[in-house]
Amino acid sequence: MKKVWIPILVILVAFGVIDRVILPFYTSSGRQSVVPDVRNRSYDEAARKLKWSGLEARKSFNVRYLPDVGPDVVIDQVPAPGASVKPGRNVYLVLNRQEKPSYPMPDLGGRPETEARQVLGRIGMSVDDVQFQAVSEQEQDGKVLSQSVQPGVSIRTGSAVSLIVGRISVEPEGMKRVVVPEVLGMSLDQARSTLLQRGLAVGRVVYEASAILVPNTVISQSPAVNTFAPAGQPVDLTVVKR
Question: pLDDT tens, 161-175?
Answer without folding.
Answer: 999 998 886 655 556
